[in-house]
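Write out the 3D structure for:
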Amino acid sequence: MDSLVTANTKFCLDFFQELSKGDEPANIFICPLSISAAFGMISLGAKRSTADQINEVLHFNEVSQSKGTEPEISSKGNTKSLTEYRDSDSYFGKLLKKLDRIKSDYVLSMANRLYGEQEFPILAAYSDSVMEFYHTSIESVDFRKDTEKSRQQINFWVECQTQGKIKDLFDKDNITDSTVLVLVNAVYFKAKWEKCFDSEKTEDSPFWLNKNEQKNVKMMRQQNTFRIGYIEELKTQILEMNYIKGKLSMFVLLPPFPAEDPTGLEELEKQMTHEKITEWTSPTIMYEEKVDVSFPQFTMESNMDLNLILQKMGITDVFDEAKSDLSGMSSSPNLYLSKAVHKTFVEVNEDGTQAAAATGAVVTKMSASLDVTFNANHPFLFFIKHNKTDTILFYGKVCSP
C-alpha cells in the first residue's frame, strides 16, 4: 500500500505543477487522493492505451512494479503488468478502509461516483469490483431523454455528500442529451485543531501578495509548542499543526518574504518532490519548539474541468469517442468519458479546517531562541496529511486569503 501512497503524492505534485502554469499567481486547492480514486474506477474498466495513459499519469504502473510483477507485452508493444490494475485497486480498498475507521475524529467524505447513460449497460463484474474496491456504485440515468432531471439528481447527491458545501457541481452546459458517462468527484473535510486559536487574538493584519501589494486579512495568533523545521537552501520554514488527536496534520511551507526573494514561492514549488516531502517532514528534520504562530483565516473554492487538465498531462483517449476503450466497463464500443469535474472547498479558522472537494536542498535546524516566529503573512504552500499512512489528502497554495 505504501507504493500507492507514493504514486498518489507524485500525481499530486504533477497535477499541481500543471495548475500552476498560469501567468498570474492564484489560490489552488485540490484533493489528489479523490482524483486518483475516481480515475482508478475508470482504469478498472479501461483497456489498451486508454488504460496505459491513466496508469502512467497517475503513476499506477509504479504500484505494480514495486511488487516485482512480471510484465506482459500487449499487442501494441507496451508493457502492461498482469496484476497492474488489481494491485492498485486492492490498495485503494485498504487505504479507504483505514481512512474510514477514524471518522469519529474528523469528517472526510469522498463523493466519487459514475453516472452512465442507461442505454449503455454496465457489466455486472465491473460494478461488483467498483463496489468492493472503491466503496461506491455506478448509477444509471437517462441523459438523452431527461437531461435536466439527471443533472439535478447528480447535483443533489453531491450536495448531500459534502454537507451542503458544494452545490450545483454541474451547470446546464455540462450535461447534455449527448452525455454518456460522467465522473463525479467532490470532497468534504472538517476537523478541529489540536491546539485551537483564540478568536480574541485574531486581528486585521497586512498580507503581502507580492513585494509591492498587500491586503488586510484576519490573522490568527497563538504561542504554543509545534513541530517546526527550516530548509536552508530555500530559506523556507515548515510548520506542522495537528488536528485533534494528531491523526491528521496541516503542514505549511513558508518561503522567504517577497521583498527579500520575489521568486521564493516559485522556487519552492519547483523543488517539491515525493522524496523532499518525506525528508522535510521527517522527525530528523522537524523538532518541537515553542513557536509564535501568525496564520491567516482563509476560504477557497475551486471548480476544475479535469478533461482539459488531464489531457494536457497525457490522458486523452478516454475522452475521445473514437479512441476510448472502456470494454471492461461496458460491452458498448462507443462508451467514453464525457465530463470529469473536480470541485473543492476549504475554510480555515480558529477552530480548525473545513474543506470540501484534489534537489540538493540542505535542511538545518533553526537556531535556538526563546520563541521561534512563524508569520504566514505572505504566499505559502500547505498540505493536509493522514499521518499513519502518510497519505496527502489535500494540497494547496494560498496567494491571497
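The chain has two domains: 2-14+25-190+300-347, 199-298+350-398.
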